[in-house]
Amino acid sequence: MLALMMDRPLTLPSILEHAALYHGDREVVTRTVEGPIHRYGYRDALSRAKRMAKALLALGVKPGDRVATLAWSTHRHFELYFAVTGIGAVLHTINPRLHPDQVVWVADHAEDSVLLFDITFSDLVAEIGQRMTTVKTFVAMTDAAHAPTGVAAYEDLLAAQDDDFAWPDIDERSASGLCYTSGTTGNPKGVLYGHRSTVLHALALALPDAFDLSARDVVMPCAQMYHANAWCTPYAAPLVGAKLVLPGRLLDGPSVAELAAGEEVTFVLGVPTIWVGVADHLDQTGGRLTSVRTIAIGGSAPTAALISRIEERLGGKVRQIWGMTETSPLGVINTPLPTHAGDTPEAALQRKLKQGRGLWGVDLRIRGDDGRELPRDGKSAGALQVRGPWTASAYFKQDGATAFTADGWFDTGDIATIDPEGYLRLTDRAKDVIKSGGEWISTLDLEDAVCSHPAVAMAAAVGVPHPKWDERPLLLVTLRPGQGADPEDLKAHVAARVAKWWTPDEVRIVEALPIGPTGKVLKRELRDALATQGATSSRG
Questions:
Q1: Is 435 a catalytic residue?
Q2: Options 435, 439, 468, 488, the catalytic residue
Q3: What single-letter DSSP state applies at residue 220?
Q4: Is 142 a catalytic residue?
Q5: 72 catalytic, yes or no?
Q6: What is the DSSP track for 464-513?
Q7: Domain-ending residue, one of 400, 429, 458
Q8: Which of 17, 27, 326, 447 is catalytic?
Q9: What CATH number should be reported for the domain holding residue 449?
Q10: Does the annotation count 181 as an active-site position?
Q11: Does any domain span residue 474?
């Protein structure tokens, strides 16, 4: 027996329609690439999105076509999130921090027909545009006064249309967005999101035990809109009527702190490197943010020292998340249970080091080397696999990917444990874990140990070859501004906090660590550089 309920498709334009109707004056604020702050309400955003939808149709864009962007987090990019998807086309957000050759590769692989770009990327587009084999139309996301010569201006296309437009009927399982992984191994892989999957993800993300968003919030995503839909916040914020603050291209500490304070932001999210910059700025100025309630951190695991610094300076509570491009990206989020109400500050901090608990919509399992599922005892570490309605089932135009199991799970490449309360704790990436004398050493635990030293800003642990033990850990660290430290003192600091045989043979202070397109430390690049130098451990 089927239910007697209306079958309304879960499509993305319905989110902005709702926001315009019930939260029409709630602001979307942008620090534009041209300079000035731009403000308008969701009602204005819907009008402009409809006009841009008509402009795209006039350019010949058809359902299923891929429309690419090379753009920061701005109001125009926000409009394209709905204008492109609302006509049944697919929004391909290209990460501009990829190597130019990879930008060309993903545009060709996606078969993009139109490319819209922010003017900060004008030189890049001039350099590589002719190499893109399928892109026929280029649009500068600005007005005529700022557009490169001979390139159509976004505002001109918009001005030529009105907002008398009805969204076409779209199957909720239709593709809506395309995002390629950052390509740390081989070419990037395309993850093809859908209307249904993204709407469900946005609903789950706003729940109290997730991001806990409402119309009373001011949301500022410091994850750029070119990667994993800025963690879906440009959809979740209008869904609940929250004010949305888009930081543009400036994610340095002073810029983020100034914008958060000026707009009275309550919810921020981003990778740890952003919050290191904000905390450094607030340390130097003696400032403190007073409006922030929640800081969501993902992308890579924050250390205990960083969590403490962030909560002290930004004033809110850290909620660590774990996810991937393939999970849209929310997989788990670290929210406390009622039984944790009486936790000591130290116990609360140790819990926050876990990536988080599962939420509805994401199934988790840990599998051992023999393929069997491991117990949720917080000790048994194995391959983390996930499945759910917003988890990828395959890569775009890539058959036979080994990351997808025969029984319908996605193998994340992470090594993890799950404890009896359901908290996931990553112990490493499978490709980063150090194997010494046949035993595993967690790089995350080593990094957490050294970052508890007050002089250390960031750290990366990597394995280097050893003639007896196969590999031994090397710790590379950067120091906080104005701080000094002796490598041997740092080594002793780590030795006091980890198993004796985990203690790195060397701690090396460096000026900077290589950061990838999504804000993660590039350990593969570190390992390659060390191999070129012929680095070996000195311990016999």
A1: yes
A2: 435
A3: E
A4: no
A5: no
A6: EEETTTEEEEEEEEEEPTT----HHHHHHHHHTTS-GGGS-SEEEE-S--
A7: 429
A8: 326
A9: 3.30.300.30
A10: yes
A11: yes
Mean pLDDT of 417-425: 96
Q: Mean pLDDT of all residues in the chain? A: 92
Sequence-distant (6+) residues with CB within 8 A of 533 are: none
Q: Is 226 within the bounds of a domain?
A: no
Residue among 311, 440, 491, 536 flagged as catalytic = 440
In the block, residue with structure tokens 């400036």? 250
pTM (two decimals): 0.85
* DSSP state for residue 119 in the 8-state scheme: G
Containing structural domain, residue 190: 13-25+37-203
Using DSSP's 3-state secondary structure scheme, residue 357 falls into: strand
Task: Decide if 300 is inside a domain.
Answer: no
Instruction: Determine the pLDDT at residue 438.
Output: 59
Domain boundary among 166, 187, 203: 203
C-alpha count within 13 angstroms, C-beta hemisphere, residue 462? 20
Q: Give how many domains the chain has, as a whole number.
A: 3
What would the DSSP string read from start to end of 285-342? HT---SS--EEEE-SSPPPHHHHHHHHHHH-SEEEEEEE-GGGSSEEEE----GGGTT
CA 473 – CA 4 distance, rounded (Å)? 61
CA 103 to CA 14: how far, in whole Å? Answer: 31
